[in-house]
Amino acid sequence: MIRPKHALRGPVRSGVVLVAVLSVTLSACSSGNSSQAPRATATAPSTSQSDAAGKAVQAGLDKHVKNDLKGARSDYEQALELDPKNVLALYNLGLLAQTRLDNTEAEKQYRAVLAVNPDYQPGVFNLAIVRKSAGDKAEAEKLYRRAIALRPGDAGAHLNLGLLLRETGDLVQGDAEVATALKLNPNFVDPAKKIKPVS
User: Is residue 135 assigned to a domain?
Assistant: First the structure.
């Protein structure tokens, strides 16, 4: 999965997952990271109506990359009119809602994704972020653990779980999860460690 080159000092946000989904979808494959990135072909439609939905999703992704969020939303909605179970359209509508800080709509879309494909790891991960924001730490923890079970090498999921566990008082397990995240992605920084200011 593509991760930013800068150090993260807080929970990993949904935008990180967006980049990975967009890059994989646009290239229709992942080079060398197939175990860590969602595969576009896993949701590839087979009927002509579904092919049209796939084209609408692709048009939406192209607009999404160019920050034409209104146009992207329109294309994703068109895709869902053609194929109501299109996972990428549902997921990306969730991302758009999350970007607008409309967590109610984001949660609705992510739950719709998981109703179609319970193992769609980016949907599980982002739903965990939304549930944590809503104050439901118990469900967020379950979702982060599920995201890790689906993709054990996801440093962001380990980091977010570790920070959540620390928040809930489980410092030993929290520290272990953060340590795992730092091993998986050395660019991450433990937010509990003080960073010396650059002089």
Answer: yes
Instruction: Report the alpha-carbon distance of residue 101 to residue 87 in Å, rounded.
Output: 21
Q: What is the pLDDT of residues 118-141, one digit of tens each?
A: 999 999 999 999 999 999 999 999
Q: Are residues 108 and 22 in the same domain?
A: yes
Q: Packing angle between helix 87-99 and helix 69-82, nearest 10 degrees?
A: 150
Q: What is the pTM of this model?
A: 0.76
Q: Which of 35, 30, 28 is nearest to 57 (CA)?
A: 28
SS3 of residue 157 by DSSP? helix
3-class DSSP assignment, residue 90: helix
Give which of 29, 26, 45 is closest to 83, Cα–Cα. 45
The C-alpha atoms of residue 51 and residue 70 are separated, in whole angstroms, by 22
